[in-house]
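Q: What does the assembled structure look like for these inputs?
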Amino acid sequence: MNRPVFRKFAAAPHIVWAALFIAAPLAFVVYYAFTDEAGAFTLSNMSALVTSPNYRAIFLRSISYALIATVICLVIAYPVAYIISRSRVRAQSTMILLIMLPMWMNLLIRTYSWMVIIQDTGFLNGILSAVGLPNLHIINTPGAVILGMVYNYLPYMILPIYSVMVKIDNRLIEAAHDLGAGGVQVLFRVIFPLSISGVISGITMVFVPSISTFYISQKMGGGSYDMIGDAIERQFMNNYNYNLGASMSLVLMILILVCMAVMNRFSDEDTGGVIV
Amino acid sequence: MNKPGGGKIVELNHVSKAFDGDMVLDDISLDIHDDEFITLLGPSGCGKTTTLRIIGGFETADSGDVLFDGKKINDVPPHKRHINTVFQKYALFPHLNVYENVAFGLRIAKRPEDEIRKTVRAMLRTVNLKSFERRHIDSLSGGQQQRVAIARALVNKPRVLLLDEPLGALDLKLRKDMQKELKNMQRETGITFIYVTHDQEEALSMSDTVVVMADGKIQQIGTPEHIYNEPVNAFVADFIGESNILDGVMVEDYTVTFAGQTFRCEDAGFGKNEPVDVVVRPEDIDIVPVEQSMLTGEVTSVTFKGDYYEIIVDIDHFKWLIETTDRQSVGETIGISIDPYEIQVMKKSVYSGKYGDYSSFSDEMDTISDANAEQGK
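A:
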């Protein structure tokens, strides 16, 4: 067998795949973002995004909602991951299964279920009325949008943190106790520093889908709190303005790249650095 | 017994512990004294590590009391005990460098920064790791990690230091050096060392007191010489050094019969014609001309050990292990003689008959041979 030739051809399917489904669409996005309907080069799509207060508001909203959702996910996920990682092995797999279970259901069904629960005449207010408490207006508020995001992306925060924590040698925790550390000190001086890589990847895995969320925001926010994803969808599906849609996608992509670069910096510093 | 310092620092009173219904510690009582180097010695599963973990506070006893300085500490958590531990495989913090690992306990105790610096530096000098302050744990050899673990524990000036097979992962020569170093450190600091090992040579060469454990029970407590020379039962005799252990009968004080002969010995206080176990160490047996011998047998194997030969002699179907400096050849008939003070007589125990015949050196080998024999049927 002629090895070099075989090697060349072995990679061919992957190269074709990457060219067809990654490089080409990317090229199209860039092409559409910098052209007008006639196909001539223009910067007007980009400048429209910057000058229009409406689009600026959507971008800012996307970023801030994604940040809030990520922080809430982290606050909930960290103790959950810790408790799971310190449970007996059998309980661990049950709990992980329960956390993954909702992910197997369709996003539409999950989102509609939440609407049924939190709408003004919904399940939650039904219970509150029954016990004589005042009703809550949740649906069609920013809170509802963030609730939907947290619910959907929480597993992506729990799983990476759990998988790092479960590998922390129990003897390190015993050693810290042995050296005089109480529970809180063990958490801050040993467990947290050793789980930081899981936290970083959890943040990335929640922030990226959060910032590009769509549909959840339309349904839970009642159309008043659109995110970038919704705006992009509208350009392609309703307004048929591919050029503006593509330029929004491009900006979103750049935003995500910048965020990931910042996160990677953090994780690099952690592994290479010295805590004094 | 050698008990420098004197006062009791740790006491275990009738401590028992079971895991999932398996009795791991069965009514252990033990006094540990100030400034003592005490070793818990036994095969794996004998309960020595569990005993250590109960003293450290990582396990709680099902019943019985643990006393520290006369006060009951059964329910005191590990971080509130004046005890530090050198863990098996060290358990150093991988996210901290050498300096910060050693400084960990002082930082928890909120010592001032300049005191921490002084103490840590001095400690690192003691364990010969002066220039390693900024090094990462992963970049250290096993021996260096070992020293960091010892420094990390000792820097807190504990009253008692627990060491859980700390030398197990080191190679033989380094282990010997570290044995000496640990012993010196213990003498210099005056800290009580409670040391766990399954290595009988390590236990004998380092300890003031050896506690031999098996099956969750203490078999014998004593100085290394006492344990070696006067084992209380067949288990101790077999575990500490090599021993020929024979069935015997104590005819009367100072007279015992075994291997079909009557011997004079130095033991007394047994019942008339009481069945006993008799221990004869391989190095205590003299090879003599057949006509002057007490026992005769055929040499079945000769192994050259460097400074001596290890020979197996079949005497009336019992395989004796004998260490001699004279070369013998297989098939030869030789005579042996045993002096009265080389005979150690022990009461019968549950371990009688389990050890002491040199058809093979280990129980494991016996099991394997048995299995082969079964298959051969």
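The domain at 54-272 of chain A is CATH 1.10.3720.10 (MetI-like fold).
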